[in-house]
């Protein structure tokens, strides 16, 4: 049932302005790729183009080796679940799930029997006779998922399907999606603006910035080894130290900091995730020293902002470990977590 | 599930509309019933009688009127539903079509029926525009106006009421139907499947409601049938008005009896519509309130 999805050179303009400017993306069969991007970056447009609900100005969409470009949505085998469940109000929960089977020509009894199986898969077998209007938001999305799976799609498209749900319900849905993936292994392309959701749910995260895929890879790689400063910033990276690379080390206002991997010499910005930075006393082995300017709570953790010779740097520390504002501290940037991205100016010059 | 208090508030909010309607209709109906049963005679003492109704029951005019009124109402309603529903469903497929249709329908609804009737008469009479455009001799042109099949009358009602049906259905479909249509498409439903399994079921309640209103309206409407119909048999409202204006004052009882019968029929058709709607609502799982 699952097939590899390949998107090549997808371009979509709205009123002359390209929203998508050559999107290349591949989702291996049975895997889940999260398409992550800020609001208005065109993530949902990618899904609509894959589903055939919109027409690209250029580019092609393939699934399982089949060229889908130009096919109407009903012949693509790309079921979609959106932010709103879009259940049919005039059908019972069971008949909603049986809908794709009925339109495929199954007999009613057979369609309902299969639909019951899909409902059981999402844990809602008891609600088969109910009307969509009587369900909670989480239940509605479960039914929408069951209905999409009942269509045996080559590719399952999820367009921020959990963003309207309460955090608790959302986590439940993440677990459900993991269970469904284990059970039926659909190929999933998930669109989200929630960085955490992308990392929890997907094997691979693709970051869509300025109409292109800026970087695609495992979530951890994107966080610790961003391709560009833009990716680093979008993923919440707070620490940027401008400087240049010389002989395997980054040289900046912080001095000479050794790098874990060889990097070509030239200007570069050192980035280190604030979660990896440790706060110590000033002096002892610190890579940078400075004064704490602000401490902000981040759930159970706290973010400590420190003014250093190289500008502000941040570290996230556990409960009870935050120094008081105004105190002098040292920051340790672990060697393995150091990463250099090109200067934005240099990038622009390259083109 | 709506709580009890919002529905009570809805009832209260309905009062400004309901009170005048009930007052006017109630007064008129009371007077009609009283006068048709001799309890409120034009001259003389009240004398309860069913003479008016008995005279009518023995008269062919009422039965023929009944037949022709129901026939015209049924034909007009079916045509208006087919055309209105069809255009609404077609128009929703394109944005421009929807806008054009909405404009056309909105322009048609406020045209008075009498003006519409005159226009249809000028178009369809044997010496009318259609006959001239087709270069048919008046003698060879089918008797659409004043003919045995009431074609011009039905055409006028169907034309006006199809605009009403289209507006009602479009308004009902506007809320989310496009999203459901897309959902159905991504689930493998082709255009016809989407029409049959999604659009039509969603449009059905509003179409039933609009059809019921159209039927009751046409049943009680006077002017179009009077202008474009034939002199016999007379539809019930035309019959009632002729009896009312008769020189014989005793015929007023009969006139009001016809009016009461017509009203009862219209109410019955609205009740049937409500019952049908309740059934559709149950079938579609939407609550009636």
From TrEMBL, chain A:
One of its GO terms (molecular function) is ABC-type quaternary ammonium compound transporting activity. One of its GO terms (cellular component) is ATP-binding cassette (ABC) transporter complex. Residues 5-235 form the ABC transporter domain. Keywords: ATP-binding, Cell membrane, Ion transport, Iron, Iron transport, Membrane, Nucleotide-binding, Transport. Pfam families: ABC_tran (PF00005), TOBE_2 (PF08402). This is ABC-type quaternary amine transporter. Its EC number is 7.6.2.9. It comes from the Bacteria. PROSITE patterns: ABC_TRANSPORTER_2 (PS50893).
TrEMBL record, chain B:
The chain crosses the membrane at residues 68-91, 103-125, 157-177, 198-219, 255-278. CDD domains: TM_PBP2. Its main location: membrane. Residues 66-273 form the ABC transmembrane type-1 domain. InterPro entries: MetI-like, MetI-like_sf. GO terms for cellular component: plasma membrane. GO terms for biological process: transmembrane transport. It is found in: Cell inner membrane; Cell membrane. Pfam families: BPD_transp_1 (PF00528). Keywords: Cell inner membrane, Cell membrane, Membrane, Transmembrane, Transmembrane helix, Transport. SUPFAM superfamilies: MetI-like. PANTHER family: INNER MEMBRANE ABC TRANSPORTER PERMEASE PROTEIN YDCV. Belongs to the binding-protein-dependent transport system permease family. This is Putative spermidine/putrescine transport system permease protein. It comes from Geodermatophilus obscurus.
């Amino acid at each position: 049932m699952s097939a590899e999805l390949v998107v090549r050179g997808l371009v979509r303009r709205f009123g002359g302005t390209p929203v998508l400017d050559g999107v290349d993306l591949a989702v291996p069969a049975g895997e889940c790729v999260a398409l992550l991007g800020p609001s208005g970056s065109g993530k949902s447009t990618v899904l609509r183009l894959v589903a055939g609900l919109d027409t690209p100005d250029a580019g092609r969409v393939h699934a399982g080796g089949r060229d889908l470009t130009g096919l109407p949505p009903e012949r693509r085998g790309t079921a979609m679940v959106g932010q709103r469940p879009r259940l049919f109000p005039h059908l019972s929960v069971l008949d909603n799930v049986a809908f794709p089977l009925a339109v495929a020509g199954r007999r009613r009894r057979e369609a309902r029997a299969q639909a019951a199986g899909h409902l059981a898969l999402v844990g809602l077998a008891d609600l088969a006779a109910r009307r969509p209007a009587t369900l909670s938001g989480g239940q509605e999305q479960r039914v929408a998922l069951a209905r999409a799976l009942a269509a045996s799609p080559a590719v399952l498209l999820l367009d921020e399907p959990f963003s309207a749900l309460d955090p608790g319900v959302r986590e439940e849905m993440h677990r459900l999606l993991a269970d469904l993936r284990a059970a039926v292994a659909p190929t999933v392309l998930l669109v989200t603006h929630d960085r955490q959701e992308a990392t929890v749910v997907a094997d691979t995260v693709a970051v869509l910035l300025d109409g292109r895929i800026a970087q695609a890879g495992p979530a951890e790689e994107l966080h610790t080894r961003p391709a560009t400063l833009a990716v680093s910033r979008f993923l919440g990276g707070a620490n940027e130290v401008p400087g240049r690379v010389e002989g395997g080390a980054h040289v900046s206002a912080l001095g000479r900091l050794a790098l874990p991997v060889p990097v070509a010499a030239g200007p570069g910005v050192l980035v280190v995730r604030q979660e990896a930075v440790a706060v110590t006393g000033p002096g002892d082995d610190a890579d940078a020293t400075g004064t704490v300017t602000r401490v902000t709570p981040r759930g159970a953790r706290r973010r400590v902002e420190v003014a250093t010779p190289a500008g502000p740097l941040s570290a996230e520390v556990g409960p009870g470990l935050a120094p008081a504002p105004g105190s002098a501290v040292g920051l340790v940037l672990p060697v393995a977590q150091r990463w250099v991205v090109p200067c934005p100016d240099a990038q622009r010059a390259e083109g | 599930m709506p709580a009890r208090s919002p529905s009570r508030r809805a009832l209260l909010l309905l009062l400004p509309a309901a009170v005048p309607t009930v007052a006017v209709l109630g007064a008129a109906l009371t007077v009609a019933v009283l006068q048709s049963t001799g309890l409120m005679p034009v001259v003389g003492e009240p004398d309860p009688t069913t003479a008016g109704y008995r005279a009518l029951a023995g008269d062919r005019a009422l039965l023929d009127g009944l037949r022709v009124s129901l026939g015209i109402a049924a034909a007009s309603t079916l045509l208006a539903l087919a055309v209105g529903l069809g255009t609404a469903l077609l128009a929703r497929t394109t944005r421009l079509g929807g806008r054009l249709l909405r404009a056309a329908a909105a322009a048609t609804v406020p045209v008075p029926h009498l003006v519409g009737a005159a226009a249809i008469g000028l178009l369809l009479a044997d010496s009318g525009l259609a006959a001239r455009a087709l270069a048919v001799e008046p003698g060879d042109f089918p008797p659409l106006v004043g003919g045995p099949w009431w074609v011009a009358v039905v055409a006028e009602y169907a034309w006006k009421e199809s605009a009403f049906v289209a507006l009602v259905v479009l308004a009902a479909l506007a809320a989310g139907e496009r999203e459901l249509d897309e959902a159905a498409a991504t689930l493998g439903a082709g255009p016809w499947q989407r029409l049959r399994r999604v659009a039509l079921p969603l449009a059905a309640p509003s179409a039933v409601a609009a059809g019921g209103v159209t039927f009751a309206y046409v049943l009680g409407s006077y002017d179009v049938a009077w202008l474009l119909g034939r002199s016999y048999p007379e539809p019930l409202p035309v019959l009632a008005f002729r009896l009312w204006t008769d020189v014989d004052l005793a015929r007023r009882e009969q006139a009001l009896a016809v009016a009461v019968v017509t009203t009862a029929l219209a109410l019955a058709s609205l009740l049937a519509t409500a019952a049908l709607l309740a059934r559709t609502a149950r079938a579609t799982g939407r609550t009636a309130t």
